[in-house]
Amino acid sequence: MIRRVRVVAKMIYQEKAHQFGILNFFRGFPVSLMGIVPYGGVSFLTHEYLTALARSRFANIAVIPASTRQESRRRRKVHELKAWAELTAGGISGVVAQTASYPFELVRRRMQIVGAHSPATRSSAIQIVRDVWSTAGLRGFFVGLTIGYVKVVPMFAISFYTYEKLKAVFDLE
């Protein structure tokens, strides 16, 4: 097993795509970094918007009633949401974040695949964007997105639910 990994790592290192062989291991990495901003930023922005909306417009069904809350000696002024509201806000924010950042993921993946098919060639992100646009248009940047939702919705729902519960436990705004 370890021997196979060494053989593959050596093959990647010796590919002619880059002058410095170590860079062959990082195809698409700058594009991944560019995709982190919309992924993280959009997810938190959407989550904050949806939870604020739930607390204001849908407070009668989404907020935990004051009679059941334990608010003695708490500094936190934000009313906690019911589990279903928090999980829904988290899941929707995951969908929006995945949709906003998916084109970056697609370009990164294509950059890596180009290297696997013909190691001597090096394809830039701009070349891949032009190719996707010319062959499939705007829809081409979102091919395969729906299957990503299967992973993202529960992941974000649970992550944001845990995030909000820990903020409540530690009495943080």
Fold and architecture overview:
With 173 residues, this protein is mainly α. The longest helix has 35 residues, at 83-117. The protein has six helices and no strands. The protein has helices spanning 2-13, 29-56, 59-62, 83-117, 125-136, 145-169. The chain starts with a helix and ends with a helix. The protein is elongated, with a radius of gyration of 22 Å.
Give a brief outline of the structure:
With 173 residues, the protein is an all-alpha fold. The chain contains 6 helices and no strands. Helix 2 (29-56) packs antiparallel against helix 4 (83-117) and helix 4 crosses helix 6.
How do the helices and strands line up, and which of them pair or pack?
Layout: H1 2-13, H2 29-56, H3 59-62, H4 83-117, H5 125-136, H6 145-169
Helix pairs in contact: 2-4, 4-6
Keywords:
0% strand, 67% helix, 173 residues, elongated, mainly alpha, 6 helices
| Series of secondary-structure elements, N-terminal to C-terminal | HHHHHH
What proportion of the residues is helical, as a percent range?
Answer: 55-70%
Structure classification: mainly alpha
Global mean pLDDT: 85
